[in-house]
From TrEMBL:
This is Alanine racemase. InterPro entries: Ala_racemase/Decarboxylase_C (IPR009006), Ala_racemase_N (IPR001608), Ala_racemase_pyridoxalP-BS (IPR020622), PLP-binding_barrel (IPR029066). The lineage of its organism: Bacteria, Bacillati, Actinomycetota, Actinomycetes, Propionibacteriales. One of its GO terms (molecular function) is catalytic activity. SUPFAM superfamilies: PLP-binding barrel. It comes from Aeromicrobium fastidiosum.
Amino acid sequence: MSGFELDVDAARWRRHVAATVEARRGLVPVIKGNGYGLGRSLLAMEAAAVGLGTIAVGTYAEVPGALASFAGDVMVMTPWRPFFTDAVLDDRVIHTLGRISDVADLAALAPSARVLLEGETSMSRHGLDRHELAAAVAALGDLRLEGFAIHLPLQAASGGPGRPGGNVAEAESWAAALETSQVDTTTLYVSHLTPGEVGALAARRPQLDIRPRIGTSLWLGDLGALSVRATVLDSHLVSRGEHIGYRQRAMPRDGTLLVIAGGTSHGIGLEAPKASSGAVQRGKLLAKGGLEAAGLSLSPFTIAGKQRWFAEPPHMQASMIFVPASVTAPEVGDAVDVAVRFTTATFDSINLR
Ligand SMILES: *Cc1c(COP(=O)(O)O)cnc(C)c1O
């Protein structure tokens, strides 16, 4: 142990990945951003190891790395735009197009490029309106159409008064629009449909080859296989009223000040540590006697079974954590557990065991 580390129970993690690939036929693994905390190149190697032929990345900036670490096809989910200066035109790259003028522009620039057309859903992020499908098809020219894509809201936002039937109804209506259009493909790439929703859609549209694009539930679907641990780098006994840190804050009680690996550069404290500021609020908290009243915020570090308080906002690579005197503090060199948001976490090392 030397820093802010991710330990992966490799056998367990791979079992979940393999089971998901098996259960969700035709899936395209999403490998974008920080690689869900695991890194994009590791994920690309895993995708190849389980026999997947296509991966999906978020942006063109991610394409060169993907082409280098993966031998199959690379789908770019951010639609191609003519002003992109980093768009990679390679025969292994599948572009997404969501505007009629972009279809025409790419057809002129790279006539035989492989493309998906995307339909605009209630996400309102990218995509063609269904009334634009005919014009988009007319603009395709020699572009090779490999499918149609839809990106739906997260399941928790499905249904409700605004969207009766939720994601299934919306996907179904796009499937119907696709069938009656001139769009010459039976492959439908879907984002954020649950297994049940894909099943319902497939049952109603058996002629469609539905391919879910999945990141989180594939890579982070078994969090028990992942543990994040941070090394205690230093430790100081502190007394109530003693001033510490960059901000020279007074310690609220006697206790131990721990310096632990893991700071803002690792993604710690991105949910802005908020000390309650208003006098009334502060008074209420003081009455309750919590450390929050002393202007402290709860950290993601767990010591002796409880989340502990930041003694001050996290530094770039370390955090200062206050542990009250009633708790036995860990020793320097010990590891403590940390709760992280994997999509914003960066580790000093990732250890597959
Ligand atoms: C990120 C993304 C996904 C994968 O999302 P998860 O919630 O990680 O499964 C799928 N489709 C699109 C278009 C995305 O941007």
